[in-house]
Write a structure and sequence with these properties.
about 230 residues; alpha/beta; 6-stranded parallel β-sheet; 6 helices
């Protein structure tokens, strides 16, 4: 299963599925799949399909489903929310690594210290989809864009918030528990005093990611890596 393609759940009917648009072009034009070839696909909702290609056209690839396997939703979900990064390559790197490190959902928000810039949401979704397939995840993460930390707390009010903060004690590391967790990373320049005070009112746990000051995209990796072996 070297290559896994994504098919929207709406493109699955009975024992057949269809790849469309970029996924179909990649299979037919780039990887040169032919009728009769075995193809693996995921619907991003926990199901993998082993299929046999039955037809190929310019815009679609159709296949018969031979076998279906599924994985349940994770026992607890971790949402990664970080302040918007102005430089596009760093923003995309952070999103890509968040997918690879199993974030259930990725939220990018305008923090008080964020330098405002237009975010290409379609481009981010493309980054997520590519990382999802490369890492062979079973559940496709969503990308959520919000305007402030205040909105983040409102949107994820049922999640336990954890904030990485330079002023936290060095030994105040994160001990992952079995609960839905909102992981908060500041932008370059960190969280403002106002945001820290808001976090305190929400019962946020403050943790340290080490003695060195990290770039935002590095902090994303440092935070999520603590969950690698959790279910």
């Amino acid at each position: 299963m070297d290559n896994v393609f994504y098919t929207h759940p709406e493109n699955i009917t009975g024992s057949r599925l269809e790849l469309t648009d970029q996924e179909a072009r990649h299979a037919a034009k780039v990887l040169r799949f032919n009728i009769g070839d075995e193809l693996f696909a995921s619907d991003g909702r926990g199901r993998f399909y082993r299929t046999e290609i039955t037809s190929i056209s310019k815009r679609s690839v159709s296949a018969e489903i031979l076998e279906t396997t599924s994985e349940p939703e994770p026992k607890f979900k971790k949402v990664l929310a970080f302040g918007a990064i102005k430089k596009r390559d760093r923003l995309e790197f952070a999103v890509e690594k968040a997918v690879e490190l199993d974030a259930w959902e990725i939220c990018v928000f305008n923090a008080d210290h964020s330098e405002r810039s237009k975010i290409n949401e379609e481009r981010l979704h493309s980054i997520v989809l590519s990382a999802f397939k490369q890492s062979k995840r079973s559940w496709l993460p969503k990308v959520v864009l919000l305007n402030s930390l205040d909105e983040v707390f409102d949107h994820y009010k049922d999640f336990n918030p954890v904030m990485a903060h330079m002023d936290a004690e060095l030994n105040s590391s994160l001990n992952p528990d079995h609960s839905n967790t909102l992981l908060l990373i500041g932008p370059e320049g960190g969280f403002s005093d106002r945001e820290v005070e808001i976090a305190k009112t929400k019962g946020t746990k403050f943790i340290s990611l080490g003695k060195n000051r990290l770039r935002a995209e590095t902090a994303v990796i440092a935070m999520l890596s603590q969950f690698i072996f959790t279910e």
